[in-house]
Amino acid sequence: MEMMDARLAVIDRRLENVKKIIAVSGGKGGVGKSLTASIMALIFSKKGYKTGLLDLDFCGPSTHTILGIERDLPAEEKGIIPPNPLGFKFMSIIYYAGDNPNPLRGIDISNAIIELLSITRWGALDFLVIDMPPGIGDTTMEVIRLLKRANFLLITTESKVAFSVLEKLISMLKELNVSIIGVIENMKLTSSTIYMEKISQRNVHFLGEIDFERELDDAIGNTDKLLKSRFARRLRDILEREEFKLEDESL
Amino acid sequence: MHEWALAEAVVTTAVKEGEKAKLKKITKIKVVIGELQQIDKELFKSLLQDIIHLEDSKVREAKVEVEFEEAVLKCRVCGHELSFSKSRKKLSSEEAEMIHFIPEMAHVYLRCPKCGSPDFEVEKGRGVWIESIEGEKEDGNDGCKIGSN
């Protein structure tokens, strides 16, 4: 028998008081996962929900840039306590790596995820939003393995390329019986309903479209501007859907 | 301190494994900590003992043994073997602290002294592991041991 990794058994305990875990994923890079995860955390916390945002895109962390969060050293108290710079708890590898490149291979990514999950004390949360890296790689497999309660929110664009990668992710999540909240079609430029239909044919909820917004980049780093964007207004409507209700709310 | 969270993880794992092996009592937990974690052995041992005494379970009377494993890193590009204790001297105290929290930060702050690459493998000395758990079986079989060796 091999030596036992002492960290794994405690991960469930660290998240036992989190009501809903949402992993924002989608397969392809550049479709708006980080922006969705960031603004979602802002919207939930403005609505009064106890919220956490965990950036698991270790090689390309960007939620701190989107939200304008400065580097800080998380406090230590029987673990590490995520800082709360914007009204919700925020944890990212940037607290430890700073602006330096973070050249991690698969085994290192797994180890760093396990370490973070086993030492971070989130406390009681309504929502824990996780920003996922692109691809069905190590991070996705670790979230599926370690966070059995995670629900995947999938983002795609109106692109054959992005959609073909999304389909593979959907196939895998379905094969492994992982909960899929649904798909948001981002950066919409036409009125085509082709992807909406294709997603519905796969028995996955199509949650809505978000139009392409040319000025959105000007809002990066400024939460007031982000919340006033058309993207945020549209996302707020989508988050009103039944799929995002907490268990005690849908009763 | 975040060592507490890791010590709690060790005790939680030991209790879980003890239940799996149907131990009525856990008498000893042998733990290995890798050098990369930069955790003080004696401090970790006393944290483990504190947590064990708080647990109202089969682990309550367990003794703990903590071993230290030196970290060996091997460069994937040029094959050079790095000793963490030597490389550590080049780090600022802040950089060493970041590795203490998340050992993978070694790839951010350390480079192979021969070729300058951050692409090295941690061959030994990373993590907190339970090497073995000793205890008494429910069926009265004393001296049961689970784990390696």
Q: Tell me the structural class of chain A.
A: alpha/beta
Overall pLDDT metric of chain A: 96
- State the share of residues found in helices of chain A, binned by percent: 25-40%
How far the N terminus sits from the C terminus of chain B, by CA atoms, comes to 32 Å
The gyration radius over C-alpha positions of chain B equals 18 Å
Order of helices and strands of chain B: HEHEEEHHHEEE
Characterize the main sheet of chain A. Answer: 7 strands, parallel
Shape by Cα distribution of chain B: elongated
CATH fold field value of chain B: hypothetical protein PF0899 fold
Report strand % of chain A: 15-25%
Helix count of chain B equals: 5
Model regions low in confidence, pLDDT < 50 over at least 5 residues of chain A: none
Q: How would you name the CATH homologous superfamily of chain A? A: P-loop containing nucleotide triphosphate hydrolases
Q: Going across the biggest sheet of chain B, name each strand in turn.
A: 2-1-6-7
* Helix percent band of chain B: 25-40%
Instruction: Kindly provide the radius of gyration of chain A, computed on alpha-carbon positions and rounded to a whole number of angstroms.
Output: 17 Å
Quaternary class = heterodimer
Total number of beta strands of chain B: 7
CATH architecture call of chain B: 2-Layer Sandwich
Which class do the helix and strand fractions of chain B yield?
Answer: alpha+beta
